[in-house]
Design goal:
With about 150 residues, this protein is an alpha/beta fold. It has one domain: 3-Layer(aba) Sandwich (Rossmann fold). About 45% of the residues lie in helices and about 15% in strands. The chain is built from seven helices and four strands. The longest helix is centred in the N-terminal third of the chain and has 14 residues, at about 35-50. The radius of gyration is 16 Å and the shape is globular. The N and C termini lie far apart (about 40 Å).
């Protein structure tokens, strides 16, 4: 256990080296308010910058607001392209409120665009099992992997 966070030494070594970025891996950090999720994610982004990788930290609600503004003022493509160039993106505070249809679409566009291109760290107070509810995606409406 490292730092009381329940991290094994191997996971800690992966996170504090640029390996997770070079391999285009993603990190999910969940936990209660005040345990240091944002601090840890922002530290990973700062380390990425020190290792020469472009990084950005954004509270997810604010980032989605910026993209919505981009649709209104004609800067959406530019804003989205800037996100694509970031090698380490931190999305902080996922699940603070239920995403509406447009926000959900924007988030999925970001994640899809970054797949195999960049690394994303997401922080949330919600356990991963509750993420469908926070994104207003009902598991019953998702395609079946068995059919």
């Amino acid at each position: 256990m490292f730092g009381g966070w329940g991290w094994g030494c191997g996971l800690y070594r992966v996170a504090v080296t640029p390996r997770w970025i070079r391999e285009r891996r993603n990190i999910l950090i969940t936990g209660a308010t005040g345990v240091g999720k944002s601090f840890l994610a922002f530290a990973l982004a700062q380390k990425a910058c020190r290792d020469g990788f472009p990084a950005r930290c954004a509270r997810l609600p604010m980032l989605l607001g910026e993209l919505r503004l981009g649709h209104a003022d004609g800067t959406y493509a530019k804003r989205f392209k800037e996100l694509a160039r970031i090698r380490a993106l931190v999305l902080d505070d996922y699940g603070l409120s239920v995403l509406d249809h447009e926000e959900r679409r924007e988030l999925l566009e970001i994640l899809e665009d970054r797949y195999q291109r960049g690394s994303t760290a997401v922080t949330s107070q919600l356990p991963v099992a509750q993420w469908h509810e926070a994104s207003a995606i009902q598991p019953s409406s998702m395609p079946s992997s068995t059919g």
